[in-house]
Specification:
Elements lengths: L1 H5 L27 E3 L2 E3 L2 H8 L3 E6 L2 E3 L3 E3 L3 E6 L5 E4 L7 E5 L3 E5 L1 E4 L9 E5 L4 E4 L2 E5 L1 E5 L2 E9 L2 E5 L12 E3 L2 E7 L2 E3 L7 E3 L3 E5 L2 E3 L10 E3 L4 E5 L2 E3 L9 E5 L12 E3 L2 E3 L8 E6 L6 E2 L3 E2 L3 E6 L1
Parallel strand pairs: 3-6, 4-7, 5-8, 6-9, 7-10, 8-11, 9-12, 10-13, 11-14, 12-15, 13-16, 14-17, 15-18, 16-19, 17-20, 18-21, 19-22, 20-23, 21-24, 22-25, 23-26, 24-27, 25-28, 26-29, 27-30, 28-31, 29-32
Antiparallel strand pairs: 1-2, 1-3
Length: about 325
């Protein structure tokens, strides 16, 4: 995989169908926008409630949906009828997110979340409060936050083949928001996903006990006021491997790309493997940064990574 990364251009376009999707449809008209089996619903919450404590799939029609829902039970798959063309636009539930998930588990497939803003500055596409969540082929854009979670040390968040664009903020005297910010989850897995054009905060901040961050692109070239690419503020074990990082010019903090245990040492970090990555600073910029900054004091397993000019491999802080 590492050799494959090195053969790519500096800023590759990941093979995500959403990036090449046709222009979205107008607001959904005619017929019910949601279906569960053979039953149709005009409100997303009604479709969620119909599944209740059971297990089911909600198919979301193409178009713009100014709607939201809270899942409190059951296992639900929220699936776009046409990937990349079912768009939740600007409406949140409980002052949190378009989807507030605290059931027995959920899956997101092919949906777009955009323009989420709430008074506390944490408007997200998804607020995950408990249980496992699998996300595939989704897009989060132009919001205060893409995904925000509570704590669930027994659960796993998995993100695959998705895009996070124009997310995050650090303003109004409020705590910062990030493209993805998880609490103490058991494991966070992020693969084949693109992070870009951040508008504040970190791209991926997670307090997960274990992480698997593999084969992703962190493109900060059009970011504004951003911070770390990956922040593991409580420490973590697992791996950060085969990713592409390009730090942008407009940074709130350019001192490091990856930060380990910068806020606390709640999780073990010994053996965290960081290898096969490629990282660079903006061409022509006379600035220095650190690839991995570590506050944990534990022995990290930093292997071979290709680092551009101005980047120091490791720094203990």
């Amino acid at each position: 995989m590492f050799k494959a990364i090195l053969r790519r251009p500096l800023l590759p376009l990941l093979a995500l169908p959403l990036l090449l999707a046709p222009a979205p449809l107008p607001a959904q008209t005619g017929g019910a926008p949601y279906s569960v089996g053979g039953q149709s619903f005009g409100r997303l919450q009604d479709a969620v409630d119909a599944i209740g404590e059971g297990e089911g799939t909600i198919r979301v029609a193409a178009g713009y949906h100014r709607d939201c829902a809270v899942q409190t039970a059951g296992r639900i798959a929220f699936v776009a009828a046409e990937p990349g063309r079912a768009i939740f636009d600007g409406v949140t539930c409980e002052g949190k997110a378009a989807l507030v998930l605290r059931g027995a588990g959920a899956r997101i497939d092919g949906l777009v979340f955009q323009n989420m803003r709430v008074p506390d500055g944490n408007g997200a596409g998804i607020r995950l409060e408990t249980s496992d969540l699998d996300i595939v082929n989704a897009m989060f854009r132009n919001s205060e936050q893409g995904i925000l979670t509570a704590d669930d040390p027994e659960a796993t968040l998995t993100i695959d083949r998705s895009t996070f664009s124009r997310l995050g903020r650090c303003d109004r005297g409020l705590s910062c928001a990030h493209s993805v910010y998880t609490g103490i989850y058991g494991k966070v897995v992020v693969t084949r996903t693109r992070f870009e054009k951040g508008s504040g905060g970190h791209y991926l901040k997670t307090r997960a006990i274990a992480v698997d961050i593999n084969d992703n692109s962190f493109d900060d070239t059009q970011g504004t006021g951003t911070n770390y690419m990956i922040d593991l503020p409580s420490g973590s074990v697992g791996q950060i491997a085969n990713n592409l990082f390009v730090q942008g010019r407009d940074k709130e903090n350019y001192s490091a790309l990856i930060a380990v245990a910068a806020e606390e040492r709640k999780n073990p970090s010994r053996g965290l493997a960081i290898s096969g990555n490629r990282a660079s600073l903006p061409a022509g910029l006379d600035r220095r940064s650190v690839f991995v900054a570590d506050w944990s004091g534990e022995a990290l397993a930093i292997g071979a990574n290709e680092l551009g000019a101005g980047l120091t491999r490791f720094e203990k802080r």
